[in-house]
Write a structure and sequence with these properties.
Layout (H helix, E strand, L loop, with lengths): L5 H11 L8 E3 L3 H10 L4 E3 L2 H6 L5 E4 L6 H10 L3 E4 L7 H13 L4 E3 L7 H12 L5 E9 L20 H5 L31 H11 L10 E7 L12 E7 L5 E6 L22 E5 L2 E6 L2 E6 L4 E6 L6 H11 L9 H19 L2 E2 L2 H6 L5 H16 L10 E2 L3 E4 L4 E2 L6 H5 L16
Parallel strand pairs: 1-2, 3-4, 4-5, 6-9
Antiparallel strand pairs: 6-10, 7-8, 7-15, 7-16, 8-9, 10-11, 11-12, 12-13, 14-15, 16-17
Helix pairs in contact: 4-5, 5-10, 8-10
């Protein structure tokens, strides 16, 4: 287990329950975290340097649950050493390195599973079959949602000191050595671009992977166009990523709109107590000609046009995802995997595209934002809801640094930008600058 935070320990618990599987090694750059994990797995060896685990010939596979900036390099090193890999989402920190991971999986012919566990929930196959059956008609568009409150990460006057128990060089790995002004060292790396991918890159890979699997049956690898807007409002902290983020995704088939919000739906009111205009706060709301489906992890419901329940769906959230990985390890067939790395690379890339559009954003103008997607009322609803959301949080849109991104045009085959949006600035965000000694390698 490489990375022993909440996600890493949770995944370790899944694997520890599988007959014939041993959690044999614990690895984290923080010795204090290792001590905590050792109490749960006393027979496991320990290391702060992942290379010691990867070099261990008795280890068959690694689970990568590090910060996002380490996902690809840690995985490729493990593949080069002949290990199979289970890597958490997003499987990459950027689109270019995600493709490098897929190429490495092919070159070294290993089993590589992405950590979007809903792929192993039988629920998804049931929803696919229901939609294909046409009970609520043809799909018109899909609304993807993530409403999860978070708080300010604070802003220090002087750079945050690294905890004495942390090997900072190994923690940084591929990332740049930049001062941090947040209050907490762990976890809040999510909200700065150097190490994280914001909420769109945190929950987005789950939600958009559900979308790609259930709605598009993985036929849409990358979208044709993406535009995103929003900003980080109300906190005045050291975070860089948006806490209010909305996007339009042109798939060339069923259009998609997405909302990601970390502020409460109304100031002083918990998110569970009030909804915005959307039907629910579920991951997916699939609007069809004769009704709609709404659901999230582990369950959902289909309704007809009159709002009458047509069918309810119940799943387990993907509890067998770890077992699925072990099954594929044993039979050596990547086709066994529910979350084979290439598909999860694509799902992660959708999130990266939404982030890139926002990062390229200019000053927001409501009329221009609405005109970006002409004659599509759900997009106008997104814009209207965004303004209502700000009002609900007692924020004045006229005084905020709102960004509206570029409408990115994408060559899905080459995984790059084309047309007027293929600027040097945009193309640069497909990759990153790697710190010396921690470069993601070309493996083809």
């Amino acid at each position: 287990m490489i990375g022993l935070g909440g996600r890493g320990m949770g995944t370790a618990a899944w694997f520890a329950k599988i007959p014939g599987v041993e959690v044999a090694a614990l690895c984290d750059v923080d010795s204090k975290v290792i001590e905590r994990a050792k109490k749960v797995y006393p027979n496991a060896t320990t290391a702060t340097d992942l290379r010691k685990v990867i070099e261990d010939k008795t280890i068959d596979a690694v689970v990568v649950s590090t910060g996002n900036h380490w996902h690809v390099l840690a995985s490729i090193w493990a593949l080069q050493a002949g290990k199979d890999v289970y890597v958490e989402k997003p499987v990459s920190h950027n689109i270019w390195e995600g493709r490098k991971l897929v190429e490495a999986a092919r070159k070294y012919d290993r089993i590589v599973q992405g950590g979007t566990q809903q792929r192993s929930d039988p629920l998804q196959e049931e929803i696919k079959a229901f939609l294909d059956g046409g009970a609520i008609g043809k799909m018109k568009y899909v609304r993807c949602n993530r409403y999860g409150e978070r708080k300010s990460i604070g802003k220090l006057a002087a750079p945050l000191a690294t905890p004495e128990t942390v090997d900072y060089n190994l923690w940084l790995g591929p990332a740049q050595d930049l001062p941090m002004y947040r209050e907490e060292f762990h976890y809040d790396w999510h909200w700065v671009w150097n190490t994280g991918n914001g909420e769109l890159g945190n929950w987005g890979p789950h939600i958009l992977d559900d979308l790609r699997n259930v709605v598009f049956r993985d036929k849409v690898k990358l979208p044709k166009r993406v535009i995103a807007g929003g900003g980080r409002f109300g906190w005045d902290d050291a975070g860089e990523t948006p806490n209010t983020h909305f996007a339009y995704i042109d798939t060339g088939d069923v259009p998609v709109i997405m909302d990601v919000h970390n502020l409460p739906l109304k100031k002083g009111v918990k998110a569970d107590d009030v909804y915005m205009r959307r039907r629910t706060k579920s991951f997916l709301v699939i609007e069809c000609e004769g009704g709609y489906y709404t659901g999230g992890r582990g369950g959902g419901t289909a309704f007809d046009a009159a709002g009458k329940k047509v069918q309810a769906f119940s799943g387990d959230g993907g509890k067998s995802h770890a077992e699925n990985f072990i099954e594929a390890m044993r039979n050596r067939k990547k086709e066994t995997l529910k979350g084979e790395i290439e598909e999860i690379h694509y799902s992660s890339a959708w999130c990266h595209l939404g982030n890139i559009s926002w990062r390229l954003g200019q000053s927001y103008n409501r009329e221009q934002a609405e005109a970006a997607v002409k004659d599509f009322q759900p997009w106008n609803d997104v814009i209207a809801d965004f303004h209502q959301h700000l009002k609900n949080n007692e924020l004045d849109a006229g005084k905020l640094d709102i960004k509206m991104g570029a409408m990115l045009e994408i060559d899905a085959e080459k995984e790059t930008f084309v047309g007027d949006t293929a600027t040097a600035e945009a193309l640069a965000l497909l990759k990153r600058e790697y710190r010396a000694g921690f470069e993601v390698p070309e493996v083809v």
